[in-house]
């Protein structure tokens, strides 16, 4: 028996076809296979029977998959979970703050375009390998884009590095906070002040340590960061408190315009999640344009004013809040009728 867990997530179209031939060969050789995938076309192409799991529980089993409509599987997979716990806060949206037009890069299969208004929260959803984080890295200057333009308040800006992005008021809370977000060996105060300390220079040379300490203490109290004191090394804090320290870093920026949050609540307990949701709403109400990437569909539905769905390196569609539900979003996220190029 052979188990394959999302085997095509990082394969090209041609590599996927080679894998399919191998799988069919194994079936013909009377091998038993368990094939795990989010991709409906793969399930229907390779599998004879299917079992749906959601939230660690078996939802349904189908012994003759060929007799089961695709919509039935999508409904069983998505379920009907409530999103009221996110306490969505309606806001009066402003003018377009941030526009991305025809951005291209190595990780994208098609040019990407979207915009975000002042005080708007735009959620990005997609399956593994959809290209959400890769698109944000191009926008933020962490990776080099091949083409495309970025407009801030209607004016085109150049973002060739993360430093340039920050100077324009564009910030990113990365998906992997331990590798890309925190400075593990530094103390909490230093992690909070890393970006804004350029504003605390005296005579352009000397850091104002008193002001740094005041900033750190203010955000430790405001975001309820659980730490013995500001001098605790951040690596000893829980994941949720590390994430709140990263958010504090950007809240301390005096002229913040665009906030990109990549999986802001991953690995965080429920209580800390709601505190982070409050911070996101505070940023939006402050006038920022918010881009929130999440693999938790109820979170995207519960928090967003609009949802952008990515599929295999391209934007597959955009849905306003009133038209978005788990089934409509998943129908865009799942590859339809063969493999997208």
Notes on the structure:
The protein has 341 residues and is of the alpha/beta class. It has two domains: 2-78, no CATH class; 84-333, 3-Layer(aba) Sandwich (Rossmann fold), CATH 3.40.50.300. The protein is built from twelve helices and 16 strands.
- How far apart the termini lie comes to 31 Å
Tally of individual helices: 12
Give the C-level CATH assignment of the largest domain.
Alpha Beta
Question: Element order, helices and strands?
Answer: EHEHEEHEEEHEEHEHHEEHHEHEHEEH
Mean pLDDT: 85
Oligomer: single chain
Shape: elongated
Task: Count every beta strand, where a strand is a DSSP E run of 2 or more residues.
Answer: 16
The number of distinct structural domains comes to 2
Determine the fraction of residues in helical runs and give it as a percent range.
Answer: 25-40%
Low-confidence runs: none
Largest sheet: 6 strands, mixed
What is the radius of gyration computed over CA atoms, rounded to a whole number of angstroms? 22 Å
The H-level CATH homologous superfamily of the largest domain, spelled out, is P-loop containing nucleotide triphosphate hydrolases
Strand order of the largest sheet: 10-13-14-7-15-16
What is the correct CATH architecture of the largest domain? Answer: 3-Layer(aba) Sandwich
- Beta-strand percent range: 15-25%
Q: Tell me the CATH topology of the largest domain.
A: Rossmann fold
Question: Structural class of the helices, strands and pairings?
Answer: alpha/beta
